[in-house]
Amino acid sequence: MKKLLLLLLASLAGASFGRADTTRADLVARVESCEAILQDFQSRSRTAIPPAVWQRARAVIILNQFKAGFLLGIQEGYGVIMVKRADGRWSIPVLISAGETSLGFQLGAKAVESVFIVTDDATPRMLFNRRFNVGVDAKAVIGPKAAESERVNEELLRTPMLAYVKSAGVFAGATVKAGRIARNDKANFSLYNTRYTMPELLYSDWVQAPAEIQPLMAMVQRLAP
Questions:
Q1: d(Cα 53, Cα 153) in Å, to the nearest integer?
Q2: Which terminus of the chain, N or C, has fewer Cβ atoms within 10 Å?
Q3: Average pLDDT for residues 42-53, to the nearest whole number?
Q4: How far is residue 157's CA from residue 160's CA, in Å, rounded to a whole number?
Q5: Tens of pLDDT along 112-158?
Q6: Distance (Å, rounded) from C-alpha 182 to C-alpha 42?
Q7: What is the 3-class SS of the chain, one letter each residue?
Q8: Full-model pTM
Q9: What distance in Å separates the CA atoms of residue 208 and residue 101, rounded to the nearest whole number?
């Protein structure tokens, strides 16, 4: 938990979403904070994503979003997306931006951390050409936790996106509308020192994973081999 808080503070300090001088170190901190978020989710049964859900995963999206309003209005954030390729290996994490979020009654929330398990191959490709609205462009429902094995059923597992959400406030409701997520080619150019864009980064082996990125990749590969 201490590691997660430190990483989130560092990434928030370096996020400055409209800032022109975001450094590669800031971008690495974003990936590391997403790793810490996933690790924290999986560390306790009341938030952990169960193996049956990971077995259906075709992509994973991890978001770190920050509240700007009093009740709802989370306005900005960032995250990563990874996809499972045809050979069973997971892609490198590709940075995305996120914002304009409404997640139900969030009184007192300062940040919202989300993990979305995507169960089909078509949904991640929506990001190639446009913004993607979670809960609008693809149905998203709250996924079963490891402590709720009785909720894992075939109908639920066929949902395009299963959502796992934590915040400082109270999350209510079964459906999810988490605003828009969008590709962030500029950030990925800097992080990976390449001109390849999201499709190539997700579905090719043309970019080698830097050492700082590999722990997140190893964790996801272990959870969903």
A1: 10
A2: N
A3: 90
A4: 8
A5: 889 999 999 999 998 887 677 776 666 778 887 776 666 667 777 77
A6: 26
A7: CHHHHHHHHHHHHHHCCCCCCCCHHHHHHHHHHHHHHHHHHHCCCCCCCCHHHHCCCCEEEEEEEEECCCCCCEEEEEEEEEEECCCCCECCCEEEEEEEECCCCCCCCCEEEEEEEECCCHHHHHHHCCCEEECCCECEEECCCCCCHHHCCHHHHCCCEEEEEEECCCCCCCECCCCEEEECHHHHHHHHCCCCCHHHHHHCCCCCCCCCCHHHHHHHHHHCC
A8: 0.82
A9: 33
Count CB neighbours of 119 within 10 A.
20
- 221: number of CA atoms within 13 Å, CB side? 14
The model's pLDDT over 12-32, given as tens digits with 9 standing for 90+, comes to 444 444 445 789 999 999 999
- Rounded Cα distance between 65 and 163, Å, is 14
Between CA 69 and CA 90 the distance in angstroms is: 36
* Alpha-carbon radius of gyration of the chain: 16
What residues make up the domain containing 152? 2-223
Q: Is residue 194 predicted with pLDDT exceeding 50? A: yes
